[in-house]
Amino acid sequence: MRILDLTRELYNAALQERRDAWRKAGKSVTVYDQMRLLGEVKAARPEYQGVYAQVLQETLKRLDRAFQGFFSRVKRGEKAGYPRFRGRGWWDSFTFPQVWREGKWVGPGKPLGNGKIKIPGVGHVRIKQHRPLEGVPKTLTIKRSAGCWYAVYVCEVSFQPLPPSDKAVGIDLGLSHFVATSDGETFAPPKAYRKAEVKLARTQQALSRKKRGSNRYKKLKMRLARQHQKIANRRRDFHHKLARNLVNRYGTIVHEDLNTAGLARTRLSKSVQDAGWAQFLAILSAKAASAGRRVVAVPPHGTSQICPQCGRVQKKELSERIHACECGCVLDRDVAAAKVILALGLDGAFGGGG
Q1: 333/316 Cα distance (integer angstroms)
Q2: 198 Cβ partners below 8 Å, 6+ apart?
Q3: What pTM did the predictor assign?
Q4: Least enclosed by CB within 10 Å: which of 95, 254, 281, 346?
């Protein structure tokens, strides 16, 4: 899309300006300095006159947020990651930051009632609206993903907590069971990537035999992107449904504070990344916050080695899937760990061995 290319070009030009100003004169260019020059940009480049002004401003703010993240990482002593120039394959969206004010539509994206929306610089565009808008629309982002275009509305909705609940549950995240609860429930992992692995391999092999840049190469590349998108959608759908299930039933949910980045570098990395624990915990926390529920994270060290009944520490190999203690406690290993996690999260005391 023309607007997408123009906003990407503006982002790269603004980044170049900031780099040159600092290297040659030791001067920092602010986002407001660059926004004041947009009039001159439109005068010199007539094609920018057809782009909504707030879209250009939001593009410059997007670059400013990238620099803010860069400086905050430098301050914390982390790997900084200086903002990069964006190629065609790394710029897939632009945003209209204001679509509603004082109870009425003031910007683009208003549904026209005939299955279309109006986008400045583009015209009336057909849209398949999968659900009605709720609350007050704030922003509209036009996004391209795997060859398809999406209109993403961000809306402000009223806070509606669920009825209070005294029930608490501990959850253990794993690979044999995606989630095992302290109540004895287990949920199988979705294995979205594993199930599609053979199909992905065939597409990748066919892609490797095509001439780079040819029409067949581009067609197969798009097919591969859509296959990956389908895998991600299936995984995300599973995470949303399971998180909603837990939030609806429990007032307090306790989980391990897992180092998912570290686990993704082990020999189990493919299965860990396929499970998507970090995404699930983020979705769970967001749903719990909107519903007035409580999510507690506890240290993960040793939770699978402790007996939930007597508190005795019993070393187990990863291949041992049953917890059997001298006190007579026999449970699925993951369920036993979930009970320990719940006790740690509620500051509960163990039995006689505690």
Answers
A1: 9
A2: none
A3: 0.83
A4: 346
Name the residue among 105, 139, 142 with its Cα closest to residue 123. 142
134 and 45 assigned to the same domain: no
Mean per-residue pLDDT, 225-232: 96
Catalytic residue numbers, as ranges: 172, 256, 334
Contact predicate 173/179, CB 8 Å: yes
Q: 116 is in which domain, residue-wise?
A: 97-156
- Tell whether the model's pLDDT for residue 353 goes beyond 50: no
pLDDT at 115: 86
Using the predicted structure, report yes or no on whether residue 354 has a pLDDT greater than 50: no
For 77-122, what is each residue's pLDDT tens digit?
Answer: 998 899 999 998 899 999 999 988 878 888 788 888 788 888 888 8
What's the domain count of the chain? 3
167: CATH: 3.30.420
- Domain-located, residue 340: yes
Q: For residues 181 and 305, state if they share a domain.
A: yes
Write 114-122 long-range contacts (CB < 8 A, 24+).
117/151, 120/52, 121/2, 121/3, 121/50, 121/51, 121/52, 122/1, 122/3
